[in-house]
Amino acid sequence: MSKLTQRVLESIDYAEVGARRIANFSYLHDRLGSSNARRFEFDNGGVPLCYPYVGAPIGLRAKLAAQRIYTPCYWPEVANSELVPEFERQIASNTLFLPCDQRLSNVQLDRIAEQILSHRIYS
Q: To which H or E segment does residue 18 belong?
């Protein structure tokens, strides 16, 4: 590892990064949890990568991208494989992995939540 990389990594306050990610996950969960098709219990020992929103309508990922809200698409090969059980295909294709990283403010998280809530489908 280069000296520069080492200095950059040493300058990160990992405890603060973790605390902010946890706070952002909780904030999104407070806003979106009641409309999320899955319930999540947060593991107090972990730090979230994202907020998984299950049950998003088809096409919402593209609508979010048009609003400059980017969500990763994990396991695209699972979503399209007929060899994979239906449950796993549904998770891969109908879950939005919403950003909750430490750089996001509550205002930005509100914008994400509002976009999700304005497109949800009621049965």
A: helix 14-32
Q: And the tokens for 114?
A: 């509002």
Percent of the chain with pLDDT over 70: 97
Q: Which residue has the tokens 């205002």?
A: 107
Measure the CA–CA gap between 123 and 18, rounded to whole angstroms. 36
Question: Homologous superfamily of 3-119 in CATH?
Answer: Aspartate Aminotransferase, domain 1 (3.90.1150.10)
Question: Which string of DSSP letters, residue by residue, matches 22-64?
Answer: HHHHHHHHHHHGGG-SS-----TT---SEEEEESPPTTHHHHH
Of 13, 10, 93, 87, nearest in space to 52 by CA: 93
Q: Whose CA is closest to 52, among 86, 18, 84, 94?
A: 94
Q: List Cα–Cα distances, 91 to 13, 28, 97, in angstroms.
A: 33, 19, 11
pLDDT tens profile 44-55: 788 999 999 998
